[in-house]
Amino acid sequence: MLNAARLHIVGRRVLQAIPVVVLSTFIVFGLLKLVPGDVAVTLAGDNASDQRIAEIRELYGLNQPFLLQYGSWLAKAVQGDLSNSLVSNEAVLTSIQRCLPHTLLIVTLALLTALLIGVPLGIAAATKPGSWIDSVVMAIASLGVAVPNFWLGMLLVAFFSLQLNWLPATGAVAFTKDPWASLSHAILPAVALASGGIAEVARQLRSSLVEILSSQQVRTLHAKGLPPSSILWRHGLKNVSVNLLTVISLLANRMLAATVVVEAVFAIPGMGGLIVNAAMHRDFPVVQGVVFTMVLIVVSLNLLTDILYSVLDPRIAA
């Protein structure tokens, strides 16, 4: 349960998040207005009359001052109304509800993959510093950072999809419609997205654990005859849990951004594809709605991280 100190942290973080949301959406809104060309002319068509163009500006509020346009959009956005697509006239919220689950599934699987592989590698390297195991783990970590997601994704498709025919190469299926098909489509994109995360988790965990395990406190525990496994789990991993949580939080945020490339490689109709397609067609409401949604997700992840900080280390909530 959340005590008074943790509730204070949550309340403070929520108040701090409000300017972040407003500023980020304001900047994107302003940058979209700097894109060359007239949206009204694009919507009206090449041979449209001046009267028709003026009607479209009036219809979409494009003739209003910039601050008034942004204020009107923000007021509707906080009520769940993200306007409609200028191209398809579909509600932006509907498009996001259709695409967001695909992106979240890939990011969740990628994060789990990074932890399931990166944590054991980091522990193995930290418990044998300077050994061949340490060298192999650090080499794997360096390779994971160096290999681009899109290149690894194409290799995975060529081998596991085209050569072995084990997993689908492209596309996505809604999890609520067919969970197994949804997971099978998400495995390869998740692995491609997780490569850098595996390396980051392994390197950061190894560095933190080596520092803890070589401390005077741990040497004293060894002298008292405590089993190495007990020292590792009760003292080593417990002391690096906050650092590991920070790495996980940063990874989740970076993976959300990196899905733009991965979704393009695997032709996944997620948030990355949605915003790229909207930007190409100058569909400003969709771009702004996607940015607003992603900012809310990142802010929520940061808020959850702050709460977990106080759980893992009560001194933070003091």
TrEMBL record:
It holds the Pfam family BPD_transp_1_N. One of its GO terms (cellular component) is plasma membrane. The chain crosses the membrane at residues 14-32, 103-124, 136-160, 255-280, 286-312. It is found in: Cell membrane. It is a multi-pass membrane protein. SUPFAM superfamilies: MetI-like. InterPro entries: BPD_transp_1_N, MetI-like, MetI-like_sf. The keyword DNA damage does not apply. One of its GO terms (molecular function) is dipeptide transmembrane transporter activity. Residues 100-305 form the ABC transmembrane type-1 domain. Keywords: Cell membrane, Membrane, Transmembrane, Transmembrane helix, Transport. Belongs to the binding-protein-dependent transport system permease family. This is Binding-protein-dependent transport systems inner membrane component.
